[in-house]
Amino acid sequence: MLRSLRFRLPALFLAGIVVAGIVSVAIAFQLLQDYSRDESLRDLRRDAAGLTQLFAEQAIKSTDEGTTAPAFAVPQLEQATGDTLYYVGPSLFPGQYSGLKSLPRLSLELLDWKAVQAGKTITFEFEPEGEDRPFLAVAQPLEVEDVIFGALVVAKPKTVLRDTWLTLMQFFAVSLFGGVVVAGAVAWYATRRITRPLLHLSRAADEVAEGHYDVVVPDTPTGDEIGQLAERFRQMTVRLGEVDELERNFLMSVSHELRTPLTAIRGHVEALREGVVEDAAARRESLDVIAAEADRLERLVGDVLDLAKLDARRFTLLHEEVDMARLLDQAYASFGEEARRRSIDYRCEIADRPVLATDGDRVFQIISNLLANAFRWTPDGGSVELRLAAVNGDVSVTVGDTGPGIAPEELDRIFRPFWSRDGGGTGLGLAIARELANALGGRIELESEPGKGSRFQLILPAVPAG
Asked: Is 298 helix (H, G, I), strand (E, B) or coil?
């Protein structure tokens, strides 16, 4: 369970969200700390500036009215601002600014007194006597009639800021938890959407591994990579099924093809061994049959070996001077007797006489396979045409017949090994012909129409010999 994609995908997704959330919260916390501190210092500066201005105005007013001290109600001001007020500076003599005397006094060592005397506002932190918590403070110079005699300190406990941070962090934590829950649900749903077709494909692959190529691959109408994988897998199973069927047909065909000549050979050998055939002519006829059937077996085995070598890319080709016209005459003559026997109109037309540097035996094998296929499908009384021409730098050998033709959906299939339209034969001739043509640097083109025959064309590059 823990090693499956159904667990690892959402776990990885959630882990990424949690890590991103923690990093975001940490950054937000640091930014919030800085922002809260800056805002608190801005408020303290504003309060300090306002209070010192109020004190200066009251001090001037009291002087003008002849009173001894301004009215500076410290408790009311602290309650109104929420700040704690302190005084920093020299001792005040009796009667001088008695409103300040009610303020706790701080040591000059806590801040830069020279900067205060220069009229600068000072920001600092300190821990007052009797308190076990730090304060954030702003010292504002006290100036009356252009004379700086001390500083008013406006302070606020840092725990107030911490309480604000903690409250916001609680909101962040709740939001992060909610986001993880939602993301977990989305990840679970998305993972099921992803893994469900993968599980179907996995079960289908198990079926295919056991040799059941007719397995049903479920449709995945997502249009994504998994849908493409399912479609490719479906095509693979269809192709494997076709290959399996072809192999079975091949085994049946080869078994039949092998059994037929072997039966004939065995029958004539037994007749000769038992003395059934007595006269010399009959014995010679039996030996001829045995030789012909042996040649047939040799050709069958040779075809299978040739195809195996071509598939394994272990096929050796010769490069020799080949007179294509002479080669075509030999191929044409090989099927002359069959054409006469079956009353087939058999013609050979040689428009050019090119000479190529290629493997003559393999070219002859290709042409022979194409002619054998043409004669196999041409009915008695039909026609087969063999033509040689050199066009546009290529040499073409055309084999045409008046057979039943080939349906469009079978045009490529007939070149597959072990496949035959009627289930007869081994289905190796055209497959070997195309592979040999490709090995020689050429190709085979096919034009066919059902009911009107077929036209195979071997095209080889016209490279001069020598």
From this structure: helix
Structure tokens, 440: 């020689």
- Tell me the CATH number for domain 225-311: 1.10.287.130
Which residue, chain included where needed, has tokens 């190796």? 428
Tokens of 426: 């081994």
385 phi, psi to nearest 5 deg:
-120, 135
Give the number of other Cβ atoms within 10 Å of residue 161's Cβ: 17
Closest-CA residue to 359 (of 465, 461, 440, 457): 440
**CA–CA dist 158, 137 (Å, integer):** 10
Q: Would you say 388 and 327 are in contact if contact means Cβ atoms under 8 Å apart?
A: no
Could you tell me if 371 and 386 are in contact, meaning their C-beta atoms sit under 8 angstroms apart? yes
Phi, psi dihedrals of residue 98, rounded to the nearest 5°: -60, -20
What global pTM score does this model have?
A: 0.46
DSSP 205-270: HHHHHTT-TTPPPPP-TT-SHHHHHHHHHHHHHHHHHHHHHHHHHHHHHHHHHHHHHHHHHHHHHH
Domain boundary assignment for the chain:
5-162, 225-311, 320-461
In angstroms, the CA 158 to CA 135 distance is: 5
Decide if 203 contacts 175 (C-beta within 8 A). no
Q: CB–CB of 154/85 below 8 Å?
A: yes
Q: Which architecture, in CATH terms, is 5-162?
A: 2-Layer Sandwich (3.30)
Q: What angle do the packed helices 360-377 and 429-439 form, to 10 degrees?
A: 150
Report the interhelical angle of 280-311 vs 429-439 (nearest 10°).
50
The verdict on domain 320-461 having CATH code 3.20.20.450 is: no
Mean pLDDT by 10 residues, the chain (466 residues): 59 72 74 78 86 77 53 71 83 61 79 85 85 86 82 84 69 73 73 71 76 71 69 78 69 65 79 74 80 75 67 70 92 90 93 89 90 91 93 90 87 74 67 86 90 92 62
Q: Which secondary-structure segment (H or E) carries 147?
A: strand 147-157
Give the Cβ contact number of residue 90 at 10 Å. Answer: 8
CB of 221 closer than 8 Å to CB of 234: no
Tell me how crowded residue 452 is: count the other CB atoms within 10 A of its CB.
12
Task: Output the CA torsion 423→408→376→451 (10° steps).
Answer: 120
